[in-house]
Design brief:
By secondary structure, the protein is an alpha/beta fold. Helix content is about 40%, strand content about 15%. It is globular, with a radius of gyration of 18 Å. The protein starts with a strand and ends in a 5-residue tail after the last helix. The chain has a single domain (about 5-275), classed as TIM Barrel (Alpha-Beta Barrel). Helix 2 packs across helix 3 (about 80-95), helix 3 crosses helix 4 (about 110-125) and helix 7 packs across helix 8 (about 210-220). The strands form 2 sheets. It has an 8-stranded parallel beta sheet. Strands 1-2 form a two-stranded antiparallel sheet. Strand 5 (about 70-75), helix 3 (about 80-95) and strand 6 form a beta-alpha-beta unit. The chain has helices at about 25-35, 50-60, 80-95, 110-125, 140-145, 165-175, 195-205, 210-220, 230-240, 245-255, 270-275, and strands at about 5, 10-15, 15-20, 40-45, 70-75, 100-105, 130-135, 155-160, 180, 220-225.
């Protein structure tokens, strides 16, 4: 498995397995299949409501704890300092782990300064091996690390052929922060599976469109966490390190960028309000 080195020296798999929108009653089996297939990084979140099932799959996998890189995320509701510490403890109890590999602030809203300082404390105590953020713009991310002690190791951003995050990718590489892609397949929107550019490249390499997208991201130094409940797709998605896209193919995919998300607009006031007020517990 190819790995990347984070800015604190921690090694992180270049491809992992995401469990967003996988129902809790299916998660343990699906994650067990992913681990059996060869995935060694699992990405979950408190707001996915399947941390316990992820932990059960890891526990029953027969793998050593240090063989699996586990990420979970803190929801906006728990961004006050003490709330963040309690939420972390709850996630760890559900996961059944004594340390976490990566803990992310899930959205750039609310009192994320207090939440970050709680994460810094947990990191210094050795309970988390790396800390980072999700969906932070360059401006908010820079402001965060300029005024705190620990620089984020990861920024997990929506990144796909239609929303390529070129400016963010450049900024993150300059700052030594790992770019990680959520929704690499754009959640199936914009006709991604039938896109003529992606299909033509896939046919040239004898690959699937999904493999081309993941390889394209990988060649841009972006970590990926594709999600699927089908074992054959798991195998396809992880099998991306034995072919290389040409410079012309990379440029062809680059021209698909629309500069905007096909999923939701981070700047839309209703969206921001909905996320900011969304409660995952009483």
């Amino acid at each position: 498995m190819k790995e990347v080195r984070l800015n604190n020296g921690l090694m992180m798999p270049a491809i992992g397995f995401g469990v967003y929108q996988i129902p809790a009653n299916e998660t343990e089996e699906v994650v067990s299949n992913a681990l059996e297939t060869g995935y060694r990084m699992i990405d979950t979140a408190a707001s996915y409501f399947n941390e316990e099932q992820v932990g059960n799959a890891i526990k029953h996998s027969g793998l050593k704890r240090e063989e699996v890189f586990v990420t979970t995320k803190l929801w906006v509701q728990d961004y006050e300092y003490d709330d963040a510490l309690h939420a972390f403890d709850k996630s760890m109890k559900l996961l059944g782990l004594d340390y976490l590999d990566l803990y992310l602030l899930h959205k750039p809203y609310g009192n994320y300064y207090a939440a970050w300082r709680a994460c810094e404390r947990l990191y210094k105590e050795g309970r988390i091996r790396a800390i980072g953020v999700t969906s932070f713009s360059n401006e908010r991310l820079q402001d965060l690390f300029l005024h705190n002690e620990v620089k984020p190791a990861v920024n997990q951003l929506e990144t796909n052929p239609f929303f390529q995050q070129k400016a963010a990718n450049k900024f993150l590489q300059c700052e030594g922060i790992q770019h990680e892609a959520w929704a690499p397949f754009a959640e199936g929107l914009n006709g991604i599976w039938n896109n003529c550019v992606l299909k033509e490249i896939a046919e040239k390499h004898g690959r699937t469109v999904g493999q081309v997208v993941l390889r394209w991201l990988n060649q841009r130094n972006v970590v990926v966490i594709p999600k699927t409940v089908h074992k054959e797709r798991m195998i396809e998605n992880i099998s991306i390190f034995d072919f290389t896209l040409t410079e012309n193919e990379m440029e062809s995919i680059a021209r698909l960028d629309t500069g905007r998300s096909p999923i939701y607009d981070d700047m839309d006031l209703a969206t921001v309000k909905g996320i900011g007020l969304h409660k995952i517990h009483e």
